[in-house]
Write a structure and sequence with these properties.
The protein has helices spanning 15-32, 65-87; strands at residues 2-10, 38-43, 54-62, 92-99. The protein is built from 2 helices and 4 strands; from the N terminus they run βαββαβ. The protein has one domain (2-99): 2-Layer Sandwich (Alpha-Beta Plaits). It is globular. Strands 2-3-1-4 form a 4-stranded antiparallel β-sheet.
Length: 102
């Protein structure tokens, strides 16, 4: 299994609007591509002294690298553009790929 991890960072004041949009719009659109089996949305915990914003990780699980590459080439650019249009540079996203090890 391959996990496509997207870590998003934003100011506290944006969290409510971002979460609503993610749950109602973005996550359903990503899952409708048929590329992912499931997703998990997690909030990163930090110490108060490190707290410069709020960070979330969304982990999308897919079967293999080919499926992920299909998502990245056919669907990713358009969905990322929608996010950028909605939030501009107020939400920073960092993407990484992980492999499940048993």
């Amino acid at each position: 299994m391959i996990i496509y991890n997207v870590t998003c960072s934003m100011e506290k004041g944006l969290v409510e609007e971002w979460l609503k949009w993610m749950k109602e719009t973005h996550l359903p659109e990503v899952m409708e591509t048929g590329c992912f089996i499931e997703y998990k949305m997690l909030r990163l915990l930090t110490n108060d002294s490190d707290d410069t914003g709020v960070n979330y990780a969304i982990q999308y699980t897919c079967e293999n690298h080919e499926t992920l590459e299909r998502y990245r080439s056919q669907y990713g650019p358009e969905l990322q553009a929608k996010t950028l249009e909605k939030f501009g540079n107020s939400v920073l996203a960092y993407r990484s790929v992980l492999e499940h090890v048993e």
